[in-house]
Design goal:
single chain, 228 residues, mainly alpha, two-stranded parallel ribbon, 79% helix
């Protein structure tokens, strides 16, 4: 456990990447949205979707944690297993921190009438628009998914360079295509539509958690074969 904590601390030496830039980019997008909606001066509720900037940045951070930081980390004598699990510990902490931030700013946003502009920047329709505890959980799982998925891509890059990343992306497209074909051949689209129409935010959070597990296991399997 101490080794994993040390790995997390090793990553946080680069506070610019894991703390400053994610927060800075998110609030820069927020200021841009404030400026735009202040100019428009619309009275109805506005949802910008700009918060997804943070989620995209978590994907980038995940990839960089396995490309930029991995060689030196292993050179320090850390095992691949400890490095991977320590990075997972890092993402759990970051996701918890940013999820709490989202909930806090949602409360401020609601108390100020959308920053006086009816702007919902930290509140995402349906997905992050419910009770605070559900928003906290959903944001945590979604942020974790983006980071872990980025880690997997970073490991693929370490293992097989750009060609590996392209093939990895193509393989996922083929899997989705196969699912589409199976659903079409079995005339199951109506069942899928019924399933998603009745799916709650809690259900979506559960699906995202399953994807986190898949990405984490896939990344761990890839990590064992990475050469530096």
């Amino acid at each position: 456990m101490n080794t994993m904590v040390n790995v997390a601390r090793y990553h946080l030496v680069d506070r610019l990447q894991y703390l400053v830039l994610p927060v800075g980019v998110t609030f820069f997008a927020f200021l841009v949205n404030l400026t735009i909606f202040a100019t428009l001066q619309e009275d109805h509720e506005n949802y910008s979707g700009g918060l997804f900037t943070l989620f995209v940045f978590m994907l980038v951070c995940g990839a960089l944690s396995m490309t930029k930081s991995l060689p030196f980390g292993l050179a320090l004598g850390v095992s691949r297993r400890s490095y991977y699990l320590g990075t997972i510990l890092l993402v759990a902490g970051l996701s918890a921190l940013y999820s709490v931030g989202i909930v806090v700013f949602q409360a401020i946003e609601g108390a100020t009438g959308g920053w006086g502009l009816s702007l919902n920047y930290f509140r995402v329709p349906w997905l992050l628009d419910g009770p605070w505890y559900l928003t906290l959980l959903t944001a945590f799982v979604f942020l974790t998914l983006m980071f872990v998925y980025g880690m997997w891509y970073g490991l693929i890059y370490r293992r097989a360079a750009v060609l590996g990343v392209v093939l990895f992306g193509a393989a996922q497209v083929l899997v989705l295509l196969g699912i589409v074909l199976v659903l079409t051949w079995t005339a199951s689209w109506s069942k899928i539509g019924t399933f998603f129409s009745t799916l709650t935010v809690g259900g979506v959070t559960g699906v995202l958690a399953v994807l986190v597990a898949i990405a984490a296991v896939g990344g761990f399997a890839t990590m064992r074969r990475v050469t530096v």
